[in-house]
């Protein structure tokens, strides 16, 4: 067996493989026996059909493909290991031929990862805008907690005010036509924290229970639905119920309600301060990591082949389409509105950045011998189980069904370890704006 290697442009390698007749004939006979065990040939018991009959029944092409599937993985593995090829995608068989003397010739192409020539990545100096908690951060957290412990009282003896929660029926119209998805029954709206169209909640103030009325609003110019963008709308409203939010007094009893471990408000405030400090530290580390990676990406020249970029663009477009659909938008309309070329160029820029980031992280991981341990993966599995409110066993079951999940977890661990290494060795100058 001979394998000759031909280096091509765009990080591609051609393998010219020749398997001598003795080996290919032996593998062909083995393929016949395997297929005979898997197919039912009329008139013959399982596995007993002669080779010539099997060739007519399943086709010689199927048997030849069985031979390739049997011998090529080992050939590819050896060639990759001997030459230390770092592949982007699995090998692609371009052609094969079984000659009259039974010699097998195969031509395959390998797409290799681009070469990464890194500058010094330890001890990098970066300027980073420092994140600091606001002076009223603790009070804001306490107010959020108080809101969480608030009670709702039914109101029957007054009109609505702008801090109430109201139960309403509504239906909306634009140009006399009912808005798709623009109606609901018994919808509870927090007038103080409404995410409805600007002006909607404000017009529900000073209304009585049972009152029916109309309001007029205007959809924003950048609204995701092209049919509603910038349009005037009219809504029919009925107030079914009014509830008043009663926020508890922020005292020592409130602190104990939040958690019995807090004996008083001072203890609660101290705990919140620690939480805020940790959050600020994590945010600053994230900012430093982002700046370091962005600096490496900007200063590292990598020649990335077009097919690699195109695959990443397709992946990004798929993610983008999913987000648009989840938000209730129309992907095709968005493309028309923004322009296909403009969206493509934006995706291309992001694709190149993603690829460069992945290659740089991979190169550093290789240089530093970064390893993924069983404990690392178990930690990730536990995190996923907690996120999706399931058991680690269920996550493991999903991984067994889809090996890409495990690959993704490995990449996450490697990225986190490389990022930590960069941050720990960086010279950071925090700046305040």
Summarize the structure.
The protein is α+β, with helices and mostly antiparallel strands.
What structural keywords apply?
single chain; 433 residues; alpha+beta; Alpha-Beta Plaits; Chitinase A, domain 3; Trigger factor, domain 2; 3 domains; four-stranded antiparallel β-sheet; extended
Taken together, the total number of domains comes to 3
**How many strand units?**
11
Mean pLDDT: 91
CATH architecture of the largest domain: Orthogonal Bundle
CATH level-1 class of the largest domain = Mainly Alpha
The radius of gyration is: 32 Å
The CATH topology name of the largest domain reads: Trigger factor, domain 2
Sequence stretches where pLDDT stays below 50 over 5 or more residues: none
CATH superfamily of the largest domain: Trigger factor, C-terminal domain
- Structural category is alpha+beta
Q: Largest sheet, described in full? A: 5 strands, antiparallel
Question: Topology of this protein?
Answer:
Layout lengths: L1 E6 L4 E8 L1 H18 L12 H8 L1 H24 L8 E7 L5 E8 L13 E5 L7 H12 L2 E5 L9 E10 L2 E14 L21 E7 L13 E15 L5 H7 L6 H35 L6 H21 L4 H8 L1 H28 L6 H14 L4 H10 L1 H22 L2 E5 L2
Any overview of this molecule?
This protein is an alpha+beta fold and 433 residues long. It has 3 domains: 2-111, Trigger factor ribosome-binding domain (Alpha-Beta Plaits, 2-Layer Sandwich), CATH 3.30.70; 151-246, Chitinase A, domain 3 (Roll), CATH 3.10.50.40; 271-431, Trigger factor, domain 2 (Orthogonal Bundle), CATH 1.10.3120. It is 48% helix and 21% strand. The chain has helices spanning 21-38, 51-58, 60-83, 137-148, 252-258, 265-299, 306-326, 331-338, 340-367, 374-387, 392-401, 403-424; strands at residues 2-7, 12-19, 92-98, 104-111, 125-129, 151-155, 165-174, 177-190, 212-218, 232-246, 427-431. The strands form 3 sheets. Strands 6, 7, 8, 9 and 10 form a 5-stranded antiparallel sheet that branches. The chain is extended.
């Amino acid at each position: 067996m001979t394998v000759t290697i031909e280096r091509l442009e765009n990080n591609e390698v051609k393998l010219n493989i020749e398997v001598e007749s003795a080996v290919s004939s032996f593998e062909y006979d083995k393929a016949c026996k395997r297929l005979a065990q898997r197919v039912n040939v009329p008139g013959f018991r399982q596995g007993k059909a002669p080779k010539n009959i099997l060739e007519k029944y399943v086709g010689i092409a199927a048997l030849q493909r069985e031979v390739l599937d049997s011998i090529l993985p080992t050939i590819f593995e050896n060639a990759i290991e001997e030459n230390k090829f770092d592949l982007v995608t699995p090998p692609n068989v371009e052609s094969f031929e079984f000659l009259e003397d039974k010699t097998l010739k195969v031509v395959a192409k390998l797409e290799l990862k681009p070469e990464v020539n890194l500058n010094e990545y330890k001890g990098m100096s970066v300027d980073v805008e420092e994140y600091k908690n606001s002076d009223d951060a603790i009070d804001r957290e306490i107010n959020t907690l108080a809101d969480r412990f608030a009670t709702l009282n039914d109101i029957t003896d007054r009109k609505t005010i702008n801090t109430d929660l109201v139960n309403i029926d509504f239906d909306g119209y634009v140009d006399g036509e009912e808005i798709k998805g623009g109606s609901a029954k018994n919808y509870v709206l927090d007038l103080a924290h409404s995410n409805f169209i600007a002006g909607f909640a404000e017009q529900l103030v000073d209304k009585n229970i049972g009152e029916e009325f109309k309001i007029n609003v205007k959809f924003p110019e950048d609204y995701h639905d092209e049919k509603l963008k910038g349009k005037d709308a009219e809504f029919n409203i009925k107030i079914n119920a009014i509830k008043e939010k009663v926020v508890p007094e922020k005292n020592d009893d409130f602190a104990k309600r939040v958690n019995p471990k807090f004996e008083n408000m001072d203890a609660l405030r101290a705990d919140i301060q620690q939480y805020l400090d940790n959050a600020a530290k994590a945010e600053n580390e994230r900012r430093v990591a982002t700046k370091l990676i962005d600096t490496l990406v900007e200063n590292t020249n990598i020649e990335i082949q077009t097919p690699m970029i195109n695959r990443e663009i397709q992946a990004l477009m798929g993610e983008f389409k999913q987000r648009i659909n989840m938000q209730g938008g129309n992907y095709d309309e968005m493309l028309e509105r923004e322009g296909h070329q403009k969206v493509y160029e934006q995706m291309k820029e992001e694709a190149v950045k993603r690829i460069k980031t992945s290659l740089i992280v991979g190169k550093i991981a290789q240089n530093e011998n970064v390893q993924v341990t069983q404990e690392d993966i178990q930690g990730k599995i536990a995190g996923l189980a907690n996120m999706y409110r399931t058991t680690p066993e269920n996550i493991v079951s999903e991984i067994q069904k889809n090996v890409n999940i495990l690959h993704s977890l490995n990449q996450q661990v490697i990225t986190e370890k490389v990022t930590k290494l960069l941050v720990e060795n960086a010279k950071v100058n925090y700046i305040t704006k």
